[in-house]
Design goal:
35% helix; binds pyridoxal-5'-phosphate; alpha/beta
């Protein structure tokens, strides 16, 4: 029999957050090794949990949750999402323009599948959250990466965005607050992106899954709140803010100039219907979760454990000669740079693999985030500060021994 090969659509698709390195780590664990997993933002694994008032909803609504919901989601869940959106200034929308999904992940793929024709281009940040690039590629589109400039605090380079727009460009993706860099964009940057989208007739896809996880004062601005006339898709969910990633709860809100999007909406409704609905027990707790039942505030406030963890990794990484990192002000990621003039590490994948083997620490190489140079890596700083302190010490030892 002829060898069975995977689809050629997967040829240029990468997802290294859970890739070969993680498989190696699982294998090492099976052989009895203890691995510190700093590769994936999985808060409950490090004792960050949602209040029971939220998860108790699953039992309370167990009868209702046994049936399929409508393809878009439960009315009660979508009403709660709409109230949340309005609270963030997203007003040019309504409940019919909100879809629930099995995590933001499913909605990223669905919204790309419903939109893209072969060769259509989507502008995606570099570094990115790699699912965006993968989803565009799988949908037959072309991911065109724009620079987020480390020298400017990892903010999107508006000139580069503008330069990369072509006749085939359909939209601009932003991830705000950002994974992997952990930065929260200021209003001026967001207004600049809105302006570009308006002038070129582009859709904005804004992944805001970290919008409630801020490590500095102020609130995260939703780019959709800055205009009524630009079509925006805003993605959010409970995986991170409510530490409920296993429940797979996400949503997307379409707002702005809705008149131009009727046909796109029809496509989205078709894809939502084809998967029948998203996980209903998950949807059943959205209302309770968005009604203020959130422990993240406690973790992220001044003196909270995530701030302490951020400060620990930030200070210890920057103290390693040849390593530098921009201070994250949101989420739980940091994206340090290796100065190859000082440390002779030229291959970030090999660096990550050697670190795993020698120090039993799992990280993701920067190139896994479609970053063009192999001189960065991402660390998830969810473990307690004392664990991180030991791990950063091990990373310092490892780097200085190269
Ligand atoms: N978007 C970003 C920027 C993420 O970092 C993640 C997960 O890490 C997701 C989307 C996927 O989230 P979900 O669990 O809702 O599928």
């Amino acid at each position: 029999m002829k060898k069975i090969e995977k689809s050629s659509r997967l040829k240029n698709v990468h997802y290294e957050v859970r890739g070969e390195l993680e498989r190696q780590a699982f294998e090492m664990e099976r052989l009895g090794e203890k691995i510190l997993k700093l590769n994936i933002g999985n808060p409950p694994c490090f004792g960050l949990l949602s209040p029971d008032t939220v998860t108790d909803q699953v039992a309370e609504q167990r009868y209702l949750s046994q049936a399929y919901s409508s393809p878009e989601g439960l009315d009660r869940a979508r009403d709660a999402i709409l109230r949340y959106d309005i609270g963030k200034g997203i007003t040019k929308t309504d409940v019919n323009h909100i879809f629930t999904g099995n995590g933001v992940s499913e909605l990223i793929s669905m919204t790309m599948d419903a939109l893209l024709n072969a060769g259509d281009e989507v502008l995606i940040p570099s570094p990115d959250y790699p699912l965006w690039t993968a989803a565009v590629t799988m949908s037959g589109g072309k991911a065109v990466h724009y620079i987020c400039d480390e020298e400017s605090g990892w903010y999107p380079d508006l000139n580069d965005i503008e330069k990369k727009i072509s006749a085939k460009t359909r939209g601009i993706v932003i991830i705000n607050p950002n994974n992997p860099t952990g930065v929260n964009y200021p209003v001026e940057i967001l207004s600049g992106i809105t302006d570009i989208a308006r002038r070129h007739g582009l859709i904005i896809f804004s992944d805001e899954i970290y919008d409630r996880l801020l490590l500095s004062e102020g609130t995260g601005t939703s780019i959709a709140s800055l205009s009524d006339d630009v079509l925006c898709l805003t993605y959010n969910g409970l995986s991170k803010s409510h530490m409920l990633c296993g429940y797979r709860i996400g949503w997307v809100t379409i707002s702005g100039n809705l008149d131009m999007a009727d046909d796109y909406m029809e496509g989205l409704e078709m894809l939502a219907s084809m998967r029948l609905c998203s996980n209903v027990p998950g949807q059943s707790l959205i209302d309770a979760a968005l009604s203020g039942n959130m422990r993240a505030e406690e973790y992220f406030k001044e003196g909270g454990r995530v701030r302490l963890q951020r400060d620990t990794v930030y200070e210890m990484l920057n103290a390693i000669p040849g390593v530098s990192a921009v201070k994250p002000d949101a989420a739980f990621y940091i994206f340090p740079k290796i100065d190859t003039g000082i440390i002779p590490i030229y291959d970030d994948r090999k660096f990550a693999l050697d670190l795993l083997k020698e120090k039993k620490i799992l990280i993701v190489p920067g190139s896994g985030f479609n970053y063009p140079r192999p001189d960065h890596f991402r660390i998830v700083y969810l473990p307690p500060a004392d664990v991180l302190k030991t791990a950063m010490g091990d990373i310092a030892d490892f780097i200085s021994s190269r």
